[in-house]
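Supplementary notes for students who missed Thursday's class. We covered one full example, reproduced here. Read the sequence, then the structure, then the short commentary at the end.
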Amino acid sequence: MLERLKTHYTQGMNFTSRDFVGVEDLPIITAYFDEVRRLVGHDQGIFLHAGDVWWRYGQQEPELHQFRLWFENDRLIAFGWLLFERDLELHLHPKLGEADFDRLGLEIVNWAKSVCPGVINSDCATENIRLMRFFEACGFEPEESKGFMFAKDLNEPIPDLELPLGFQTRHVLEHEFEERVNVHRDAFDPSKFTLERYARVRSMTGYKPEFDLVVSTPENEFASFCLIWLSGGVGYFEPVGTRAAFRRQGLGRAVILEGFRRLKALGAHTAMVFSGTKNQAFYESCGFRVVNHFKDWRFKQEFESLELPA
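Structure (token representation):
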């Protein structure tokens, strides 16, 4: 299969690449995702949402991220993102021709292997046929299901949901940041989320306080929460959680429905969320539908880095 990749190097455009320089590169990356999602359809979920970038970069220490960016002239055309020195996000512009798609994809894999010589994991939507074929050609092997991408058309009706007496859906207030961290830690126990990480998340360009939502009890304890990132007319829910003591009471659904209402009021046309397979029934009960299935891929085959022609 690697022979197929070699033959594609006889043609293709000239590209340049460089390493990530810091948070000032995030707007370039998020604009790239807005562009490619417009091209393939926002509700397909094949490419990351800008909210994935803001959330992942914000809530993990900067030194855990390694990026390399590829440009056609000054236009971002592809990039690789390594997190935890093992998880590779590989993104190639959908308008790339087959030769350049394979060429840049292989450059990204070679870069990732040079940075992380051990096992590399990645993932791919089952409808991203080009990327799956490329993974197979490079020696990645599919593994278990990772989860589903869900979408909700905000032009459809949003149901009302009555909360228990004294409970309310609202956004977090500044003096409640510690409780906001606590509800996250309890929902995802064990969790490494801290006030410092939460502060970094709030420093991201896409963070909007009115989309940092909670369900609060009469005693102002937070029972459930969600954080929504709005970009390109699409609201992306990441993360969503409920404390164990408050589950199966409709509170997680309530905070999501409040998110739908706020997004619709600002003109968003779609809401999306990614989750593991065990949460499918919950998200469908909120009005989401599955639009894509993701599988994990693992690089298990050793090979020497292929050299591109001069």
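Commentary. Residues 151-293 form a domain with the Aminopeptidase fold (CATH 3.40.630.30). Residues 98-115 form the longest helix (18 residues). If anything here is unclear, bring it to office hours.
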